[in-house]
Design brief:
Layout lengths: L6 E2 L6 E2 L3 E4 L12 E4 L1 H10 L2 H6 L4 H6 L1 H11 L17
Antiparallel strand pairs: 1-2, 3-4
Length: 97
C-alpha cells in the first residue's frame, strides 16, 4: 500500500505529498468558485505551459477533456513511466493553444 501522506494527482495518478489546486475554468475566466482538481505541481505547471487560459476555459474545462487532448495524453503517457520524484522541468511550448 502507498504512503498514507501521499495523494494521487487527478491527471497522472502519481502520488504527491502536496497537491496543488487547479481551477478547471481559470479564475480570470470566471472559474473562481468553480470546480477544481488536485494535481501534482508538475502536471499543474505543464497544463499552464501547454494551454492558454482561454483554451482551458473554452474546451479543456474538465479532467476528461484534459486527459483526452492529444498533447496532454502524450505528456501523461511519458510522465507515468518516470520513477522517483514528481518534479520535472516544464517549458512553455511555442505552439501553446
Amino acid at each position: 500500500m502507498g504512503d498514507p501522506t501521499q495523494v494521487s494527482c487527478e491527471l497522472c495518478q502519481r502520488g504527491t505529498e502536496r497537491p496543488t489546486s487547479h481551477h478547471l475554468v481559470p479564475k480570470l475566466k470566471g472559474g473562481r468558485r468553480g470546480p477544481q482538481a488536485r494535481l501534482c505541481s508538475t502536471c499543474h505547471r505543464q497544463v499552464h505551459a501547454m494551454f492558454t487560459e482561454g483554451t482551458l476555459a473554452r474546451r479543456l474545462n474538465t479532467l476528461e477533456a484534459l486527459r483526452n487532448d492529444p498533447r496532454m495524453a502524450a505528456y501523461l503517457s511519458w510522465v507515468r513511466k518516470r520513477s522517483g520524484g514528481s518534479q520535472f522541468r516544464v517549458r512553455r511550448w511555442k505552439g501553446r493553444f
